[in-house]
Amino acid sequence: MAPRTAPAAPPGTVPTLQDPGPGLVVLDPPRAALLLELDSLFTDLAAELDAPGVVGPPLLPAEGLARLDYFRNFPHLGVAAARFPDQAVEALAAGRPVAEQPVSPTGYLLPSATCYGLLLSLAGQDVGPELRLTAVGRCFRNEDHYDGLRRLWGFHMREVVYFGTAEGAREHLARSKEFIETLASRLGVELSYQPANDPFFDKSGSRAKLMALDPVKYEFVATDGTAIASVNRHRNFFGERLGITSEGAVAHSSCTAFGVERWVHAMVLAHGTAQDALRQVRDVRG
Q1: Which of 65, 183, 190, 262 is most exposed, with minimal Cβ within 10 Å?
Q2: What is the spatial distance between Cα 229 and Cα 33, in angstroms, rounded to a whole number?
Q3: Side-chain half-sphere of 161: how many Cα atoms within 13 Å?
Q4: What is the CATH code for 29-59+112-285?
Q5: Do 131 and 110 meet the contact criterion of CB atoms below 8 Å apart?
Q6: Which key words tag this protein in UniProt (predicted)?
Q7: Residue 114: φ, ψ to 5°
């Protein structure tokens, strides 16, 4: 008996797109359009703050991340880039199972946040009175579980980053907070504003304790508990670690981050369907 096949979709329609695996999602046309429209709205903040767009790197050097204490704080989230050694390449070419083949480290990791590449690119430089940049990038995290668009292996993160004075870093976040609250109201998305609960590897470590005593990261949280944006005050930590200065003084920095797929999730949660959410975004854009 011939195997059954799904009925052909009418011309011009897209068949049901299945997720390739846990934590991996293919956005159908309405959700894909919603993602692009939302990110276009987020760039309005960059325009208001005079933050030109750049394109960050697809990989980050492990040595650079170590300078930023990444492995002390988030070693469990890292996704390393590896390559097949020669013997594995030959085995694969001969049809041997991929899972049986060894891999060799490259010294690089996939980004877990967009800002890391921008920070490392400014090491040893003076940014003048102040500098703002924006970028959107694919970010990857080794999570303990995955949950639709709320928690993914890979996702898009739009960031607007500030370098300069302590006062300027605080102003950057204040203006970002106002922008996000206004935008969410216009989009019909209800958000709460609360201190972040970052997934530090050692919850009893000094960094985690300092965050509890003096939160430097606040999140905007949808009604189902999904954090969809954040404002982050770095103090002068990255300036000191990377030798970034502002007119000769150690630079302070801060950043605003949007989890774009999570905004798609929040919009569908608020409006019922991706199509209705898309209409709302387009109404806001005018």
Answers
A1: 190
A2: 20
A3: 29
A4: 3.30.930.10
A5: no
A6: Aminoacyl-tRNA synthetase, ATP-binding, Ligase, Nucleotide-binding, Protein biosynthesis
A7: -65, -35
As a whole number of angstroms, the distance between CA 264 and CA 34 comes to 7
Domain ranges of the chain: 29-59+112-285
User: Directed axis angle between helix 166-187 and helix 29-48, to 10°?
Assistant: 140
Could you count the other beta carbons within 10 Å of the beta carbon of residue 37? 18
End-to-end CA distance of the chain: 55
User: How far is Cα 122 from Cα 217, in angstroms, rounded to an integer?
Assistant: 22
pTM comes to: 0.90
Are residues 225 and 161 in contact, defined by beta-carbon separation less than 8 angstroms? no
- Spatial neighbors of 126 by CB under 8 A, at least 6 apart, are 244, 245, 246, 247, 248
115, 159 in Cβ contact below 8 A? yes
- pLDDT value for 8: 55
